[in-house]
Amino acid sequence: MEIFGLSIKGTIKPNVRVLIIPSVLIGSLVILSLVVFKNGYLRISTQIKQLRDAEQIENTLTTKIDTLQQIRGIALDQADKVVIAVPEKNPAIMMLAQLNFLANDYSLIVENKVVNPPRVKEGELSTVKILFSIEGELLPLIGFLKGINNLTPLSSIESANIALRGNIARIEVAITTYFGEFPTKIPPITQPITTLTDQEKVQLEKLSALKEPEFIELDPTQPDKREDPFN
User: Which residues pair with 177 in a beta bridge?
Assistant: First the structure.
């Protein structure tokens, strides 16, 4: 074989020609080893990263489970209070019942009750306005008005117009009661639990101190046995 008119056999010394084939083989093995090493290293690095991610997720879940077990009873109780304080549906009927109970504590009667159409806002608190009048002596009426701020569902007095007739006062009251949709999405299971801030804890304590509605529980009764009318 000739290259540029020169014979390789003639130009390469015999001892060099002997080393060509082993050198080519060794070079090929080195290149192959580098390729295999690179692929193996990448796979090992990927597996190590996946293992570390799995360990991190496992630690997060373990911490989350421990935290949930510790706060389970408290969290459920607080959730119940929040649900009653700011319910999902229009709470007008519930609030009217609360007003009647409160008025009864002061020997008063709530009259001329009117419930306006609710104002529903997506992503925000919705409101419903309740109008009513109440009549009686001034001191019980003042106690009644103060008591509204301590009721659930959460409400605020929008206006209170007082008309005095001797020792008797009549008050036309407008209150706003709040409600809103509950969250429909939950955070990823691998996301750590975020603890409440001090301000949120204070707000929960205030909600816990509010007077909840008096629900009546009926005892379950078995249906009476009906006689066969055709007998």
Answer: 128, 155
Side-chain-facing half-sphere of 84: CA atoms under 13 Å? 19
Banded pLDDT at 1 (limits 50, 70, 90): very low
Per-residue pLDDT reduced to its tens digit, 42-69? 777 777 777 776 667 666 666 655 655 5
* 8 Å CB contact between 113 and 139: no
CB 151 within 8 A of CB 137: no
Strand partners, 163: 170
Cis peptide bond upstream of 153, omega within 30: yes
Question: Would you tell me which CATH number, out of the four given (3.10.180.10, 3.30.40.10, 2.102.10.10, 3.30.70.60), belongs to the domain 86-182+195-209?
Answer: 3.30.70.60
pLDDT tier at 217, thresholds 50, 70, 90: very low
Q: Is the pLDDT of residue 147 over 90?
A: yes
- Using CA atoms, how far residue 184 sits from 15, 115, 127, 180, 193, in Å, is 82, 28, 20, 12, 18
Task: Give the single-character DSSP code of 221.
Answer: -
